[in-house]
Design brief:
Blueprint lengths: L5 E9 L3 H15 L5 E9 L6 H8 L5 E5 L6 H11 L4 E4 L11 H6 L6 E5 L6 E2 L4 H18 L9 E4 L15 H8 L5 E5 L1 E2 L11 H20 L8
Parallel strand pairs: 1-2, 1-4, 2-3, 5-8, 6-9
Antiparallel strand pairs: 4-7, 5-7
Helix pairs in contact: 1-2, 5-7, 6-7
Length: about 240
Amino acid sequence: MADSVLQVSLVTPTYNERENIGPLCEEIFGLLAGVPDIDLELIVVDDNSPDGTGAAADALAARYPVRVIHRAGKLGLGSAVMAGFALSERPYLGVIDADLSHDPAILPDLIHGLRDYDLTVGSRFGATSRVEKWAWHRKLISHLGVGAARALTGVEDPLSGYFFLHRNVLGDFRLTSTGYKILLEILVKGRYRRHLSIPFVFRNRQFSQSKLNWREHMLFLKQILLFSLTRSRHRRSGPPA
């Protein structure tokens, strides 16, 4: 097992990330060029970005193992992730933001962790984690949200957008929320026993703007309420087949 190659599809949803998608590919594939036991493809799911992100991603496919899904409009991050998962035929799946906030430096650790764990998560709250230029109100909202979701799941950073899993963790998973916190729904509904959290530096975005707004925060509160009810009724937890 130790010598086998891990075949991974990494999904990145995009909306107006033209200036970031090229540097993201350079970082990811430059780093993994020195890791022979990881075979990774990047699946870009673009929601018809007005800035031409989709076309920029198509151009990158000539240099890197990149596939692009062009969607008709801004349909939401959660459904974009699921569209990327559906396109993949690989046994391991992951998600990363396209805005360069998720440091690719921990990619080998996250992916290698799948040899022993069902699910691995890039955590903003580990002992050595750090968030660059975190505004006080964003920090407060994040800590409150993470606290509620952590009580529900037992995972250090259950709202992270940077994670990997065995495909079988999803089982017959059906997304019910269009919000940003798809990992939370996977943690509540997925089939897994062991998870690993890896600290990382959450970097300040350079070119794009945050897509979070008060509507997304309200959707999150709705998720917490619904998932709490789901957990109170039954817990579907088991190892990947």
